[in-house]
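Re: [ENG-882] Designed sequences occasionally contain unexpected residues at chain ends

Forwarding the minimal case from QA. Structure tokens:
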């Protein structure tokens, strides 16, 4: 199973401010995220799930890692599951024989999952948004990079980079 992390980061590796992405929704990044993750399980923390409006992403198995389950919400959707630990989640997904899963946030989930990552997809937004949540640093001795896409958003350079673990 390939474990992939996917995120958008500002110039200081920021991923969020007060529970939201401070740059808003960048159409090209959202399209990349949707086309890359659709059909695969996505794993996230509670705050990330809440930032999605407490609704699972369609056409994906959504797994929320939280010590508190919300049966009122999870009973409404057949693609939403709660797990108590990141490690248990990975073990269950391995047993289900998925060929790829995506870790979609937040900060603590990214930190726990980085050592398991085979791939990382990062949208680099070349501006400091004074974030209060951050993506962990990527060790360039462990991952090589490949630029997938670049564009401009509100006069800001944006690059989508794929990092692959060096075997």
């Amino acid at each position: 199973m390939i474990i992939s992390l996917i995120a958008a980061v500002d110039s200081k590796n920021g991923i969020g401010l007060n529970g939201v992405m401070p740059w808003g929704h960048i159409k090209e990044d959202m399209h990349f995220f949707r086309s890359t993750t659709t059909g695969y399980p996505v794993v996230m923390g509670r705050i990330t799930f809440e930032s999605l409006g407490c609704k699972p992403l369609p056409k994906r198995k959504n797994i929320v890692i939280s010590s508190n389950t919300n049966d009122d919400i999870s009973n409404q959707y057949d693609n939403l599951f709660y797990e108590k630990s990141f490690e248990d989640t990975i073990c269950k997904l391995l047993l289900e024989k998925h060929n790829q899963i995506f870790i979609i946030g937040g900060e603590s989930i990214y930190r726990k999952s980085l050592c398991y990552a085979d791939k990382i997809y990062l949208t680099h937004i070349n501006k400091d948004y004074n974030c209060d949540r951050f993506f962990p640093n990527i060790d360039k001795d462990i991952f090589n990079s490949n630029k997938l896409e670049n564009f401009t958003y509100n006069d800001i350079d944006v690059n989508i980079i794929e990092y692959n673990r060096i075997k």
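QA comment: On inspection the terminal residues look reasonable. The beta strands are 2-9, 14-16, 42-45, 62-65, 80-83, 100-103, 119-125, 133-134, 143-153, 156-165. Proposing we downgrade this to a documentation issue.
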